[in-house]
Amino acid sequence: MTVRIFVSRDAGAVAVGADEIALALEQAAAKRGVTLEIVRTGSRGLYWLEPMIEIATAHGRVAFGPVTDADVTSVLDAMIADGPHALRLGIADEIPWLKRQTRLTFARCGVIDPRSVEDYRVHGGYKGLERALTLDADAILADVTTSGLRGRGGAGFPTGIKWKTDRKYIVCNADEGDSGTFADRMIMEGDPFVVIEGMTIAGITVGATKGYIYIRSEYPHAVEAMNAAIIVAKRAGFLGEGICGSAHNFDLEVRVGAGAYVCGEETSLLESLEGRRGIVRAKPPLPAHKGLFGKPTVINNVLSFAAIPFILAGGAKAYADFGMGRSRGTMPIQLAGNIRHGGLFEIAFGITLGELVDDIGGGTFTGRPVRAVQVGGPLGAYFPRELFDTPFDYESFAARDGLIGHGGIVVFDDSVDMSKQARFAMEFCAVESCGKCTPCRIGSTRGVETIDKIRAGERVNENIAVVEDLCNTMKFGSLCALGGFTPYPVMSALKHFREDFAPVPARLQAAE
Ligand SMILES: Cc1cc2nc3c(=O)[nH]c(=O)nc-3n(C[C@H](O)[C@H](O)[C@H](O)COP(=O)(O)O)c2cc1C
Ligand code: SF4
Asked: What is the mean pLDDT of the chain?
């Protein structure tokens, strides 16, 4: 009898020992004379349970976690005997945290072998492309538009509109620089074919034959996974000339960035792809008209492309049926920071921030009260508990001076100093600014200096007014959203946590 065990090869699982567990499992099995097949999958996204390992049984995959080296022998025994164990989590698909999700984009992540296109196909992969190949470009575009899909990179621009008319290149933005986010990495490592399939459908729709995936250099596992999947997809006829025997050609290449937050901004990314320093281009012209190498280009986030196969295979309406208002479908939300149950939670738009943080996230890891959450990356606003009734959708967050961005939520407990966080936002902008425009380049540096004065108790009210003025200039005068959105964390900290901007002695007294 062969025992089939699944161990994640996701960077998050590897960081907490998944490779060592796989090795120890092999050794323990050899000692027992058990024939073992280890399948290295992606992660299911329940990061607090990693390394989480699963065994295939007649009643489904049974999960155990978090497994340490010391547990391997007893876990293997319990797996083989299908018996009890303190780390036994039950049938993986039935784990409430997972079961509560609506996994459309991440349906296969953590389930399949990301190096096997056959496994991808067995789990419904390439059905979207197969259908797309039976349609003309207008019909595919109609599906993408009907689905209501909006770009998952941050700005929430309708993907259907972006894909209208002919384009020369397809570019996938995998720079994923937002704090607390990892969904792009996770899907590239756990289900790379879904990204390839989405990009291929985009290529067919707009008539592009070449695509690039721009991945940040801090993601070596994702680079490896995408490169491996591209080779496999090419061999199987899903990339290259005459895709699946059709008249369509589409090829893909991975390009690795050099680590700058601003290189995630689409025009700066294009500069970097062309081999230059990542400096933001003035818009217009939009990349759709003059993008990579001066040619019309579709540039989308990883998750936007990864949503496409479901839309084509499962139906545009089925996708659009999820969500609220103008935010249709599901959002892979990433719970991070000081949180008990950190991980990836894909669910329809509309769930409240409070449900996500308290109920699903389980509150803070430290066990102290949640005081603030930053939603949408380093340019996102800080939300206090009073705003936890905000539904997770683009418009509701905008109405409360926030943004959902790439879906990252970073939780802070009551030990956080919000004036320090406001200073950090300005400092982040000063460090990451591409330097092209004055409000961002100079404003952020002046912002740091002025917040320092406030924190030192120097003419607090006057300096708060200076910060507000600087924020106004940055918001309306910056060329891109790095300078333009840095005011969001700063102003939200001032608005909701004003007491932290009192002179330090007063704050210390209040804490006593
Ligand atoms: C400073 C800055 C950083 C950004 N970083 C990313 C990023 O890492 N990934 C991403 O997809 N979009 C990022 N964006 C948004 C992109 O400019 C662009 O809107 C997005 O790639 C478009 O794809 P979408 O329509 O699928 O969201 C960033 C924008 C700014 C201003
Ligand atoms: S806002 Fe900042 S990052 Fe954006 S173009 Fe201006 S200087 Fe560059």
From this structure: 96
